[in-house]
Structures are given as C-alpha cells and as structure tokens.
User: What shape does this take?
Amino acid sequence: MASKDVDVFSSVIIADICSYWNSMSKVMDVTGGATFPNISLANACLTISYGNAVAERGFSVNTALLTKDRLSLEETTIWAVRVVKEAIRLYSTHTAVPVTYSMINAV
Assistant: This one.
C-alpha cells in the first residue's frame, strides 16, 4: 500500500496521481468554496516532461538508421523500419514476432 496515495479527506485510496489531484480539486471548505483554489497549477506541473530520453532515443535510432548510403530513404520507409525494429524489441527476438496473413498480404 505504500505505493498508493491516500486521500485524507475521504479516506479513499487512489493509485493514479492525476486522479488524486483531480479529487483534491473537488474538495470544498465549510463555506462551499474550493479548499485548494490553485490546484490547477499542480495539474499543469504534471504535464511537464521531466526528461527527454524518449526523444533522444528516437534521434539515436534515426542516426543509426540513416547511414551514408541510406540518406535518400523516404519518410515512410524510415517509419516502417522503426516500426519493425520496435516490434522486434517488444517481442525480444525477430523469431517471436507473430506474422499474420494481413501482414503478408500488405507486402
């Protein structure tokens, strides 16, 4: 239970941080006003990326893909190669990727 946030106002256990702050924005004080009127700032902070590792990884993949003799590849070809590489990465090996009839017919 240590990984879950506890809403102290309603004693509801909330696992998702966005749901937690959304529930906190609905908490009212005794006069019916918002207890936390500036809660939208917390929601805005949650949308800010804390790093750019995903983008940097994409640049690295493109750099490795676009060698000296492959610089004239079209964008669709680059996308296709990246999709295939990602599928192989997800299945851990190229022999584990399921090949369907629709995939064969698409070629």
Q: What stands out?
A: The radius of gyration is 23 Å. Residues 5-47 form one domain. The first helix runs from residue 17 to 25.
